[in-house]
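Re-run with default settings, no changes from the original entry. Doing this only to confirm the output is reproducible before filing.
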Amino acid sequence: MKRVPFDTVAAVDLGSNSFHMVVAKLDHDELRVIDRLRERTALAEGLDDGDRLKAKVAERAIDCLGRFGQRLAHMPVDSVRAVGTNTLRRMRESRAFLQKAQAALGHRIEVISGREEARLIYLGVSHAHSDDSRRRLVVDIGGGSTECILGEGLDILESDSLQMGCVGWTVRHFPDGAITRERMEKAQIAAGLELQGLARRYKRLGWESAIGSSGTIVACEEMLRSAGWSEGGIDAKGLRKLRRALVEAGHVSKLQLPALQADRAGVLAGGVAVLSAIFKILDIDELHASPGALREGVLHDLLGRMRHEDVREPTIRSFARRYHVDLEQAGRVERTSLALLAQVAAGWELESAAHERTLSWAARLHEIGLGISYSGYHRHGAYIVANADMNGFSKQDQQQLAALIESHRRKPDPALFQALPTDLQEPTLRLAVLLRLAARLHRSRSPRALPELSLFVRKRELRMEFAEGWLAEHPLSRADLDEEAGQLTQLGVELHVS
């Protein structure tokens, strides 16, 4: 077991209904939670008809992150991971909000895909049930989405992220707080339609236990147990009684259920409708709530990265195999780009290990688009990386990799970098320059080693020096580098070669 650099780690989950923070200490290779914070921000309710976040809700969310940030202020950047889920995926014009949110929290916020959210949820649940090797169905009803995962041990067999959650379903089907039998049935039928696409696949594979995670399911289990409608877990009979109690109350304001917290009441009807549909469509008899969820999965994933068991590495290898990347050529470009990085890291403020990893991954996948067509392969590769499900990568990670891959050849487009989060724009542009130079130097695809060369930088000015006489003996390389100098002016970069 590799020693980790920190003994305390933290995860922040920017959910559609609530924001969560969990801090854990590594104790004999086990994570022991030492602090938790939760605040209901109702982020999903703050989206207008155009999916833009209302100012009042944005302010509430920023204030919450400021309080979280105070708790995390002393923690190193690499010991904290913050992730945003469905509402941040949907939000339009989110850059300004994310900049303020990151400033308040003091740490980077990653917007993750639905498939990545499902993977992390399953990871959190699996570690909470590590003594159970049976095939399990995991269900997580969040504020904006519902994740369903089928797996064994730590291995996922099927996973889906559905666009329905307790907040969204409540707003859609119970907008004024009134709860009627007709509304509940309509909400349940609508949720059932969302589940039809996965039901056959999941039933064909089957499972031995059903586990639920996060707020809606934990709250329902507590209410059923407190009301005496279940001895443990959630069963179909107890869920029917809960559904009937909601309809009999008639309105959110009149709900009086044991163990129901005030901030859960407003979104309970939508959550119960979704959970009822899951029980019906997947023929579930009983489901038990798990103490593990997305944030615990984020902690374990972060711990894996620190132990050099980073799930992103096998993802890169898998993509290289799938798209038949020339591994020898990719390796040559990777080694040269990293050697160039080592020479300019201090001068270009690229000393973070994250910059080295990103450049390495981009070099290994820079020719991924050749599997589609040589013509415009840099654009094909960028499209694949930007839009594919990539385990372990956030949306921003994929956007950054796509920008590097698309800009590694031909005339570079400054707009690729301007579209990135502000803090990534200049570092990514500089990494792109290094990748372009490495790709140029290995254009011949020859296994012969390159000559020793030196690279010096000052702001956006580079000077590349070769051994005396080498450029004269390699006129194609000289012509390539002269052409590159002309193209780099598009990025405001001056290249001098001698």
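The chain is about 50% helix and 15% strand. The chain has three domains: 8-112, 130-289, 310-450.
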